[in-house]
Fold each of these.
Amino acid sequence: MKRILLVFILAAAVMYGILHGNLWRNNFYWLPPTAVERRNALDTCFLKPAFESLLGIPCRRCIVVGNGGVLRNKTLGEKIDSYDVIIRMNNGPVIGYEEDVGRRTTFRLSYPESIFSDPIHYDPNTTVVLIVFKPRDLKWLWEILGGQKISVKGFWKKPALNMIYKSSQIRILDPSITRKTAYEWLHFPTRFPKKEKPKHPTTGLIAITLAFHICHEVHLAGFKYDFTDRNSSLHYYGNETMSQMMQNEYHNITAEQKFLKKLIDKNFVVNLT
């Protein structure tokens, strides 16, 4: 009996040593801070997201695809499509731009003024995440899903008047994601002077915040703006130029670009462009 017990204890000790060694080599949480080096993202995901079981993927590699003109002629489409989760935003089209931006979309973050309304852009495999900036946005969703007459009053531009997605494809973004982006990341004041228009984060930065909550690895593409050339392309599609963005009073693009640079410099994200 003693021999059996001794063999059991020894076997347990060996198993513990093997498991402990594997954890030390492979698990980020066992590594001392001085020993942590960024590993090849294609091989290892070692940062656990807050909602680990959301998509049921053990190691979730995500890319957030911005709409910046920097994506033009980069032929990153195939690379972008290789990620587990692909997050896009607003009405950045895929059709006609597949070589540069890819074909797949897992999540598309939008608000009433920026959501697709042309059925040509419908994707049955996309989940649309509605960003609520104002109470009117929720009323719009209620009206458009209920087939009611939509009032366009209270929007900064005409919102979508028809929904091309099925109701089962639509989610509402947790407001805490937007709040974290605005107040914890960009340090916006909770109140702005009456003479100053209130600032809110861009959809792109909110999408990155979401990615940090559901992804192990976060990569970016299309998030660089050229402030030195007012005539440079604002988006990878269309003819808008940087002059339109520089005149925008609702965003603080300079603050966002500085924050993104910190994320990249500290290796919290990988920037493909």
Note: The longest strand covers residues 61-65.
Amino acid sequence: MPQKQKPKSWTDLKQAGNECFKTGQYGEATGLYSLAIKELEKSNKKNPEDLGILHSNRAASYLKDGNCGECVKDCNMSLELFPFNVKSLLRRAAASEALERYRQAYVDYKTALQIDCNIAAAHDGTNRMTKALTEADGPAWREKLPPIPTVPLSVKEKLARQAAGAPQPNPTPQHNGTRQTNKPPTSDKDMKKSQALKDEGNALVKKGEHKRAIEKYSQSLKLNPTEVTTFTNRALCYLSVKQYREAVRDCDEALMIDSGNIKAFYRRAQAHKELKDVKACVDDLNGLLKVEPKNSAALKLLQEVQKKKTSEPCCSFGISNPA
């Protein structure tokens, strides 16, 4: 009689969920994070922050799958267990924005900026929410906001210490010498050097020297791995040199930082089209059109892909791409 397999530990389940997330298997990742949550809740070593991170990771999977309601619920739970967790704040903000709950999104983006003023996604989100709320409520829109919590200094210091010493709780694949890490804000010196390298990359793109531009962007990202436009710029270069999987990875990174980034959605859609992954291409274009419904380039590409899909045999446009 075969032995009954011992249940995996919550850490093993979490790691398996992270691996699924990295490869875009968000439904599978959600299931594994759910099992990890159950295992951790049953264990004697239950730690509120560990549980909070699991809920935050599952929220990321829900967000990727477009299940914004469940994402918000998981972020709420995560923030109860692990107050002022930046990733949970940003994920809840992105989900709230998608649900058109602009006031809550604004509050979460502003709260995240209290913890780290260098988060590009939070700055961009704040600007989008300011525009949306001004259009909806007029000049007095701030009067209708819920209160924005003040992040205590002790919490900022604790989070900075954890970020400096702890491993990254959420999957961020390493490639081309860069890694987006949960670390203290980049120094002014590194920010300036990173920007200079990015500018050099931009100049090389204008000359059509895409391979050399990739090198400059990679060097820039080593110094500042939170600059979303550097990822989308490098993705453009990868598209130009036909390195489509690398373009997808850079767009993944960009969308982890800014979940509504138009260029990341569009360039990833272009890469998926070249990789003959029609479903992923269409999903990205639909994601883009949720943010910017009248984007003419996205509408044109969507029409082109759907027309090609219906006119060719289904086998010629396989949606499964081996890693």
Note: The two ends are 36 Å apart (CA to CA).
Amino acid sequence: MSPLATGLFHRAISQSGVAILPTEQAGDVTATESVASAVGCVTTPYDDMMCCLRREPAEDILAVDRPGYPLPVVDGHFLVDTPKDLVRKKQLNKVDYLLGTNNDEFGWMFSIRNLYADGMSAAEFKARMPYEMFFVGLIYPEGNTSVLIPAVLHEYLDSVDTDDPFAVRDQYFQLKSDWSFVARAVLMAEAQSALPVRVYQYEFQHRSSIFPFKPDFVKAEHLDELFYVFGIPLLREDEAWKLPFTDQERDLSLDIMAYWVNFANNGDPNDYSGAARFRDSTDWPRYTPSSKAYLKLDLASSADVDLRGNRMEFWNEVVPKLMGGDATTSGAVRLAWTVWSFASLSAFFLCNI
């Protein structure tokens, strides 16, 4: 997304995430003031704060504990606009792109604590919506989540039996995955494929046999594909990584590694030119604005089109209109995003200790 990166790389791969994130605007010194306070510097006036910070040892600055993630700054130089607007305007580096998501991305946040094992009622689903939509609303500060919530309830609950707690729970999981991961990846695929480059999209769908401790309702969750990308099922002689993958899972790993390497070498996951060996793997169709083709990565991979089509149209077209258009970020958005990021990571690590 940065013009400064033009020509520094010729292909890219994004797995379970793209750079459509909140940003800070140049001139927002909230984070700087936080660091200044932590090292004993004044925060006003600005020039005095900066003079004090420049006198501090680098080690002291780096030692400041700030929860959450630092956000990119729209400075007009490295980042000339918000990532969302750069995607909308298709102001992106013209490079071949392979990207995708897993079919149950947000399952990891629930499976580690076996939450909602007995399902979720429609009332619980509805009660969660102000919290969930609060973060969507922060990306669109001019919008009104009171308008957004009924639309989300219509999109995710009207199509299922709301008396079935397992069906309701599955819709909640899908909602979390859709708006946090999938919709942004699809938006990115659409924008990049409009450029004169090759784009390939996937959805990883295989629930690994080595995870019997996961609840039955959790499928391929966040991070699961990494085992296959890096060939972990093949490490049968390494005691540290000698895991009971099946022969079919080893084949899936070989296929995925071949796709990734072929793409890196030739810009096409199907092109084995220069490869040491050829695999008789499923043909991966190229994603174009008209075809919206993608590959379902599984023990028996297959091609399909228009991943979660109606849901992606909802998040990428309907929601921005309901919420007033383009996204911006304020200090309040940054604070809320930091709190959400920190809380999510804390929950993940605390539950795995």
Note: The two ends are 37 Å apart (CA to CA).
